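Hi everyone, sorry if this is the wrong subforum. Our group has a chain we'd like a structural model of before ordering constructs, and none of us has done structure prediction before. Sequence below.
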Amino acid sequence: MTSEGTAFKTRGSKAEVEEGLDFAPKFDANGLIPAIATDHESGNLLMVAYMNAESLAQTIAIGEAVYFSRSRNELWHKGATSGHTQVVRELRVDCDQDAIWLRVEQKGGACCHTGRKSCFYRSIPVGNGGDPATIALQFQDADKVFDPEQVYGKK
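Answer:
Right subforum, don't worry. Here is the predicted structure as tokens:
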């Protein structure tokens, strides 16, 4: 999953990585880094995906979110099919540079391929001391903004 011609700075010491100004992202053994997208105005969590070096470089270059699809094993320009692109308003890296945070303007009002504003539309009850095998998820903010079948032509 490495991308020829896409090189970031070499990682230095812990102090250099955590306190310095060199962008030296740490990709995992599969060449991926987690990417968390939130709405730039509300702060609401939209989605979690992965990037490889090429998708991260493209995101920086074009100012729209480009991810790496693990299931399709290919780059994925968010919204290329649906029109629900993510315009990057701010891009941050965490302290040890092994996670990316995208603050985005979500075009079309929906991020999730299910037609919802966020991929996080169900909650998990906590603190009830129950058996995890019996947990029933609860819908939260689950109204659909679009019909996925109409947008993608499949269920």
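For your construct planning: The chain has a mean pLDDT of 92. Helices lie at 14-19, 53-62, 148-152.
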